[in-house]
Design brief:
Length: 352
């Protein structure tokens, strides 16, 4: 698809065009990544954060947040639960927490990899090359780091750097790739100041980066953040942070990056508790990340308000999810569920 085609599909002129886009995304999803829905257990291991991202509810300056950092044995218990529920991957997500030291995380990864059959995905923010390397050496399989928006000026505005000389997220994504990680990134949809041209550029960026996983979720204003306190933008080319807009982006990203893994995100489920995730699965997505964070920590990980899954225990959510998948006629994935994009990349590397 050309850049102008991508731009065009984000603003369909008529309902029929929109439905046609969803049908195409669903067909490409089926042909390229299959019917399986891969399940990844998400554990929010720490909400300490040294950053001041203007959109995020666990930013360092938000003093009302009760901070926690899980112990290794607590994370291992979550991993056992993931295995019991039949999930193939554990995702360790946290704020940018210096208390999650290189050695402690490496040790945890080694234990997870030796005591379970799980793939381990890290989502621990912008970390030093030595840390990313140590964690990869310890056996981590994947790393998630969203670039949030391809509009550099907007990105700088909402995401103050910790140090002026820190590598930007695109540089980090390149480093992760060189280290041999399966690499995931993505954006928020409808950040104030994000235009339709920006969103089309986001899709192109995803394609250029040749990502293995792409997470797309609506921006949800948090009242305790600088961006959440700003009135919504009334600019005519402002991308809405709506459910429908998220589906358009999901479908667009499936067409732009056909062989990648795409989750139906928690942020989408927050906009539509009943149908958000299942509609996402019918419009390009092929991954769900059920939350396995112990119940006592969940309400402390409020990156945006009303976050779905704060009150539902993992076993209950799992039962509901499996019923939904059965109704859609989609099997839950078996094994670790690496993306075809990654498998192909690795195959090429092995042949060289
Ligand atoms: N609304 C929606 N998504 C958010 N994230 C952080 N804050 C918000 C918000 N207010 C997303 C970012 C981050 C991911 C972990 O959560 O895209 O990369």
């Amino acid at each position: 698809m050309t850049a102008s085609e991508l731009r065009k599909l984000l603003q369909p002129a008529a309902e029929a065009e929109r439905l046609d886009l969803y049908a195409r995304a669903d067909a490409v999803r089926r042909a390229r990544v299959g019917e399986e829905v891969h399940l990844r257990g998400l554990v929010e291991v720490s909400n300490y954060c040294s950053r001041q991202c203007h959109y995020c509810g666990i930013r360092a300056d938000h003093r009302e947040v009760t901070r926690y950092r899980m112990r290794s044995d607590e994370v291992l218990q979550c991993a056992q639960l993931a295995v019991k529920l039949g999930y193939g991957t554990l995702v360790l997500q946290a704020g940018e927490d210096p208390g999650l030291t290189r050695d402690a995380v490496a040790h945890l990864i080694r234990r997870l990899k030796s005591e379970t059959p799980l793939a381990v995905t890290l989502s621990l923010g912008e970390r030093a090359l030595a840390e990313l390397k140590a964690w990869r050496d310890a056996g981590a399989d994947r790393y998630l780091l969203r670039f949030e928006t391809s509009n550099e000026e907007l990105y700088r505005r909402i995401h103050p750097p910790l140090r002026a000389d820190a590598p930007d997220r695109f540089t980090l994504l390149g480093m992760l790739r060189d280290l041999g990680y399966e690499v995931g990134s993505g954006v928020m949809i409808g950040v104030p100041g994000q235009t339709f041209d920006d969103a089309a550029r986001d899709l192109e960026r995803c394609r250029e980066l040749d990502l293995d996983m792409i997470g797309i979720g609506p921006y949800l204003p948090h009242p305790a953040t600088p961006l959440g306190q700003r009135p919504p933008s009334a600019a005519p080319d402002q991308v809405p942070n709506s459910e429908e807009m998220t589906y358009l982006m999901l479908a667009g990203v499936r067409l732009a990056c056909p062989a990648t893994n795409i989750p139906a995100t928690t942020a989408l489920a927050t906009l539509n508790a009943e149908g958000g995730r299942t509609s996402g699965l019918q419009r390009g997505a092929n991954v769900i990340m059920p939350n396995l964070t112990p119940m006592e920590y969940r309400r402390c990980y409020e990156i945006y308000p009303g976050k779905r899954c704060v009150s539902e225990p993992p076993e209950e959510y799992d039962a509901r999810l499996r019923a939904q998948l059965a109704a859609l006629g989609r099997p839950a994935g078996c094994g670790q569920g690496a993306s075809p994009n990654w498998q192909q990349r690795r195959g090429i590397a092995a042949a060289q």
